[in-house]
Structures are given as C-alpha cells and as structure tokens.
Amino acid sequence: MRYSFDELISFCTELFCAAGIRDEHALIAAQRLVEADLRGRSGHGLIRVAPYLERIRAGGIDRYAQPRVIRETAASAHIDGGNGLGQVVMTMAVELAVAKAAEAGIAVVGTVNSNHAGAAGLYPAMAARHGMAGIYLAVANANGMPPWGGTDPVLGPNPISIAVPSADGPPFLLDIATTAASHGAIKVARQAGRPLPVGWVADREGGPITDPDRADEGFLLPIGGYKGSGLTIAVGLLAGVLNGAAFGHDVVDHRTNPSTPTNTGQLFIALRADAFRPLETVLADVAEHLRALRESGSQSGDPLRLPGDQAAHLEEEYLRDSLPIAPAVRDALNTEAARANIPRRL
Amino acid sequence: MRYSFDELISFCTELFCAAGIRDEHALIAAQRLVEADLRGRSGHGLIRVAPYLERIRAGGIDRYAQPRVIRETAASAHIDGGNGLGQVVMTMAVELAVAKAAEAGIAVVGTVNSNHAGAAGLYPAMAARHGMAGIYLAVANANGMPPWGGTDPVLGPNPISIAVPSADGPPFLLDIATTAASHGAIKVARQAGRPLPVGWVADREGGPITDPDRADEGFLLPIGGYKGSGLTIAVGLLAGVLNGAAFGHDVVDHRTNPSTPTNTGQLFIALRADAFRPLETVLADVAEHLRALRESGSQSGDPLRLPGDQAAHLEEEYLRDSLPIAPAVRDALNTEAARANIPRRL
After folding, report:
1. Residues with Cβ < 8 Å from B230, sequence gap 6 or more?
2. Which of A119, B42, B74, B173 is most exposed by smallest CB count within 10 Å?
3. Which chain A residue is nearest to residue B309, measuring alpha carbons?
4. What is the mean pLDDT of each run of 10 residues along chain B (346 residues)?
C-alpha cells in the first residue's frame, strides 16, 4: 500500500480534527507522524494515530490543549504542554530553542505535561535545517528496564537524538534508544511477525526472549551494560526531573493506560554550528569528515552508511514516489475514519 | 603504596613546575590528575604524568601555553588552549561555562588546541558543585575503532560525561567512553596483567582479543553496535569539528607520537538545575529519584550503585585515609623527580 506524503498528512489531519484537535495542531501532529514514516521510522509514524485517538477519547491527552511558555530567559524556556499531543509541544519547543539560539548561540527548552512526540530524530533535524546542531532527550512513555544489576523495570528506553548540519549531503542525524531496542521497534517486529534479535529482551533470569509476543514478560536490555543504563538515567534526570515531568516509578505506561496523563518531559538544546567558527567553514568541515567516514574501509565493500543516511535516502525515494504503509496501519486509520463518520478512506 | 591527597598534589605540582609549567597551571593539572586517582579513575590519574612530561619535552605540549578566549557571547565561548595541558584548558572552560550559565541559564564552551584532559567526570562534577548539570564531550587522543561496518579505525573512544546535582548524597555522575572499553582501561588491565573481557577488543575478523598486550592489533568495539558508533561520531562532530579541532583521520595518537600537537577539542555545556523550576525542589526530586533507584530490586540483594556512587565512596575513603598508588606509577614519578633533580621521592 503506497500513498503520497501530502495525501497521508491530509488524511491524518482530518482524523485529528474530527477528534476535536484544533486545525493547526492537527496539521503539525500529522506532519511529524508522516515524516516519521517518510524517514523509515514506521514505529513512530501513522501506526501511532489509533493509540493517540484512543488516549484522546479516554481523557489521557487533552484535545483542547494549548502549550504555553511558563518560564523564559534569553537562552532558556520551560513549556507546559497542557497535556497536548507531544508532536505539537515539541515542534513549539524546537522553534523556540532555534529562535533563542540564533541570538544567544545556544538555548535550551524543556517541557512538562507533554506527551509521546514520536520519532526523536525529527526535532534535531529541524534545528539542522537552521544551521544548528540539535540535541533531543526525552523520557520514554513506558518502563521496561531495571537499573544495571537490578530487577525492577523502573527505567525506559529513553531516546537520544543528535543532529549536526553539513554543507552537502544529509545532516548527521543520530536517533537511538538507550536500550538495545525500543518498544516501537519491538512493536514493528510483532506486527511483522519477526522474531526479536538476541540482546533486545531478557527474561528475569537473563535468558533471551525472541518471541515478540512474549516481550512484555521480560526486560529491555541497555546498550553497553552499565553504560546504557547510566545514559538512560542521565536522560531521565535531564528531560524528566529538571522539568518536573515523570521519571522512574512515576512513568505512566501509555500502552496499557489510556486515561492517565503521562506528564512526559523532553529537553531540547539548539547550538549554532557557528558558535565557535564561521558557518561556511564548519559546514564544509562536517561534510568533509562525513565523506571521509563514508568512504573509509567497509566490511561489505559498499560505502558505509552513517546515522541519518538511510533515513535521508528513504525520504528522497518516498517523496519522489510514495510511502509504503502497512495494511494493518491502513486498516486502523480507516477504522478511525469510519468511527468519526469521515467518508474518506486510504 | 598509599599517600595523602595533598602530598600527591604537592609532589605532582613540583614535577610540572620543574618542567617549566607556570605555578598556577601546574597546581591545576596536579589537582585534576590526583582527583582522578581519588575517584578510582586511575587510568586518568598520576599514571599520565610521565607521558605528559615526555610530551612536554618532545614539544607535543607547550609548557608556556596560556589558554585564552577567542570568541565569546553571553552564553558561549571558544577557548584556544594554546596547546597547553588539557586539565588547565578544561578547568578554565568549566569555570567560564558555569559563570555564563549562572546568568543565561545555559552556556557552552568549546576548546581548540587543547590536550588530553584526563578523567571526563571531573568537569561535570565541578558544575554540579555549583547547582548545575554538566555535559562534557571530548575527542579521544587516539583512534582505534572503525565506523560500524567499517575496517579503518578512524574513530576513538570519545567520552561522554554528564552530572546532575542532588540535594543529598553524591551527584549523579556518568562518565563513559562510547567504546566498550577506553584506552585507559586497557592500559590499567595491561599494567595489572589482567586479561581483557570479551567484547572490549576485536581482531580484524571480529574475533575477541583478550591479551592486553595484543590490544593494539585489534579494534575497539562500540557500545550497542551502530548506536555507540553513532554516539562516537556525534561527540567527534560536536567537540572536534565545531571547534576546529581534530577528529577522524586528523587525530594524533598521543600514545605513539609525543611531538605533534594533538589539537584536542572539547565541548562543555553547563545547565542550571533551576533553569525550569526552583533549585530546592529540583535537587530534592533528584535525590528522591536516585534514592528510589538505589533501593529498587537488586540481583545481588545489595543496594544498587548508580553512576558516580562508587567514585564518591572512594573519594570519601581515600580523603579520610590515603590513596593507593600502584608501584609502577610511583616508580615512574620518582624517575621523573630524579630526572628533574628534585630530591623529593614518593
């Protein structure tokens, strides 16, 4: 099933509007969700629309929310998301951070009372389009991993995304969970009926779980043992606790609890690429280093792919042709349309 | 061999002064090195004095360097380290970032023409003592890891350190290399005659190397496969390329090349813990979350140790009693004293 970028955004916007979300927020959320599919991050794309709508109906997300700045300096801001859609809150956060960093060189914007904001990489990518590096940290909306050496799954796969703009070619764009696998990646594997790689999920005795339907019985594993566990906590403190948002035992599992606000926290840092040196020089140097890395020796003989390359490649291909949407995702969207008495179908 | 904190700093300061380093810089470098030993990070402690002195004699480090700010805004600064000792450059960078963040909420300081600055965690810990979170990124002074899927070791174990202050107990303090092991950790294992754990170093076919004396024949392995590889590149771009410092193929191996300046780059971000909420509330919330994590279920039955806990525990013990220094390190320091015609010995 393939659809054009614009068609998917328009359809998704209509679904959110029908749910009572104001037009401009519906469009922003739809754009961020379809952009995730566009960049091959389907675990954070349109697959999320039905769960979001369920949360709105159950009261877990406020359809009428208006995010607002509740504290502000020249280089920082705190946004109360009002329990609105995370994509709307984070888009506002990035735009504000970029505007402040343009003046101050660096800026930080934190969010409280936000929600799941989808594909982490979208937000630093927005900064990169303004000639800035972007760093995005967020508290994941479901736990599933103990601290290293522990047995209580009080930590989640908190994401880290970092973008650095380049003079040519796609920006460098890292988008990772601090666990070996995210809940989204497990969900995609489950929907595709694919077994989980060893190292993604462990049972309570440490043995591997590879059946995606049994993933919830076990623990997510961090990257690099205590290192990934520590990174997850660092992200949780910076994006959650500094903001007054949920972390640790306060995290609301948005997969199983549709009615309780998640109080999601996110932290975004925008840093002008020319904070230290002229922009043109920096961007040319980044491009040269990325080129050298891509062309360095490769096990397969093909040029190496760097973080962001595959997403940029898919984006180009899907914008030219159309985006593949899984039948189950299409069906879920069509079911939502029927429920909202929208005649349109994908 | 155990010595008091003050005795070690005094002896190390004398060695640096004898090498021609100005008094105040010698003291700062000695403090940072002994602090590393104090916190159990002996791979970045006094073990480094002899190699630093060798670099100074060979012209690889400028003993007369005076780091200076070459570009500055209210929330950012660029420091040219003048090829001085990295500990001196980074101490200046942190102090400047903390002073700027106190006004602006967040601040970034980058370095160029710096050098190896020792234990990464020391610098965010300085920010934490001022009620700020600190983020330190640096380009390692030796490569040894290919990009994921690659065969040319053009990347290094670039460190990431993040501190978040707490109302009581030690601050959260993550200090990790983006590789499974750092060169320093391998050096410590080699000096102790301990085999390397599987997963630290791979040979060119991907098989494990566990003999520490054979580590240089292989590649360092990243944490989390492509994720750690991507983190290393992100750190290299932010701390190296933005600053105009070395990254990738430009990195000078300070272990084998004592005479060429390394042009090390570092990036430090200071973020007021009260950027978004009152300080007392934030610090109390951090303390409560850290306590809850420490007291969550444990595989061993003992309370869990979080990043920074072990270092804080050692610091307390060693300050009360004295620091253990390995005989080989003591001998190297005494050899340097003899070479400098300093009568004093450890």
Report:
1. A174, A176, A306, A307, B148
2. B74
3. A230
4. 96 98 98 97 94 97 98 97 98 98 98 97 98 98 93 95 97 95 81 89 84 90 94 98 97 93 98 98 98 94 96 97 96 98 96
Smallest CA–CA distance, residue B171 to chain A, in Å, is 11
Which ranges of chain B does DSSP label H, i.e. alpha helix? 5-18, 23-38, 49-58, 86-104, 122-128, 183-192, 226-235, 279-294, 309-320, 327-339
Between CA B135 and CA B125 the distance in angstroms is 10
Six token digits for residue B97: 């970032």
Q: Do B242 and A275 touch (CB under 8 A)?
A: yes
**ipTM surpassing 0.85:** yes
- Give the gap in angstroms from C-alpha B228 to the nearest C-alpha of chain A: 8
Helix %, strand %, coil % of chain A (to 5): 45, 20, 40
Structure tokens at A179: 């666990």
Q: How close, in Å, is residue B11 to chain A by CA atoms?
A: 34
List the single residue in B with minimal CA-CA distance to A307. B230
- Whether residue A307 and residue B226 make contact (CB cut-off 8 A), yes or no, is yes
**Where exactly are the structural domains of chain B?**
1-58+320-346, 64-179+222-307, 186-220
Partners of B174 on chain A (C-beta within 8 Å) are 230-231, 233-234
pLDDT-based confidence at residue A172 (cuts at 50, 70, 90): very high
Q: Where are the alpha helices (DSSP H) in chain A?
A: 5-18, 23-38, 49-58, 86-104, 122-128, 183-192, 226-235, 279-294, 309-320, 327-339
Q: Which fold has domain A1-58+320-346?
A: Hypothetical Oxidoreductase Yiak; Chain: A, domain 1 (1.10.1530)
Distances (CA, A) of B119 to A1, A140, B185, B245: 53, 30, 11, 19
Give the count of beta carbons closer than 10 Å to the beta carbon of residue B195.
11
- Whole-angstrom distance, CA of residue B308 vs CA of residue B319: 16
Q: What is the largest CA-CA distance in chain A?
A: 56
* Cross-strand pairs, B220: B201
Nearest-CB residue to B227 (from A150, A223, A236): A223
pLDDT in tens, A95-111: 999 999 999 999 999 99
Q: What's the CATH number for A64-179+222-307?
A: 3.30.1370.60
Name the amino acid, one letter, at B238: L
Residue A204 pLDDT > 80: no
Pick the residue from chain B with its C-alpha nearest to A165: B237
Rounded distance between C-alpha atoms, residue B27 and residue B21, angstroms: 9
Question: Do the Cβ atoms of B265 and B111 come closer than 8 Å?
Answer: yes
* C-alpha span between A223 and B307 (Å, rounded): 15
Please give the helix or strand (H or E) that residue B52 lies within, else none.
helix B49-58
A345: distance to nearest CA of chain B, Å? 38
What is the pTM assigned to this prediction? Answer: 0.96
pLDDT of residue A10: 98
CA distance B343 to B346: 10
- A151 neighbors B298 (Cβ within 8 angstroms): yes
Contact A16, A26 (CB under 8 A): yes
- Of B148, B119, B161, nearest in space to B29 by CA: B119
Three state DSSP letters for B308-337: CHHHHHHHHHHHHCCEECCHHHHHHHHHHH
H/E element, B104: helix B86-104
The partner residue sitting opposite A106, judged by closest CB among B106, B151, B276, is B106
What is the C-alpha separation between A165 and A93, in angstroms, rounded? 19
Beta bridge partners of B163: B134, B173
Least Cα distance to A252 among A48, A55, A62 occurs for: A55
Q: What is the dihedral of CA A112, A118, A124, A125, to 10 degrees?
A: -150
Chain A residues within 8 A of B171 when measuring between CB atoms: none
